[in-house]
Amino acid sequence: MVAKMASAKQSKEKDPADIVNQNAIHIETIKKENRSQKVYTLFSINPYKRLHILTDKPMAGNKTHDQVQEDPAFLRAIHRACLEPTKKYTHPQTESQEIGWISRPLIVSDRSDRRLNWSRQNSEITKYMDAAWRLKEQTQNQC
């Protein structure tokens, strides 16, 4: 029984730190991370997200922004992102866009066509009530 306790006590105690062994474990960990890691070297701004640009201070003496060449592909992507969906895509991308995708009227609107345009018509009683309401509003506003 005493022998078992002594061996259990020895297994609980750790061996002193071996630098070579720790370095090997560290190298293996880094290799595993590098295998699953993608390194991105080409960065650009997402053209589908709203961009908030902060301007320089007006009295700042640094004029480096005048010397920078503009990338035409980047400018096209930014301008395309600001367009409404009907100008960006040929077909609706979501079911919500299907409603109102074709916003052109089906027929040409002709205001002189009496079949489709029912303009407001006044009879004697409506003319009288309009005048009465106007008179009532004027008297209330004067008080």
Automatic annotation (TrEMBL):
Main location: other
GO-annotated cellular components: ciliary base; cytoskeleton
Tagged with keyword Cytoplasm: yes
Tagged with keyword Iron-sulfur: no
Subcellular location as annotated: Cell projection, Cilium; Cytoplasm, Cytoskeleton
InterPro entries, per database record: CFAP144
Alphabetized UniProt keyword annotations: Cell projection, Cytoplasm, Cytoskeleton
Similarity comment: Belongs to the CFAP144 family.
Name under which the protein is recorded: Cilia and flagella associated protein 144
Species the sequence originates in: Oncorhynchus mykiss (Rainbow trout)
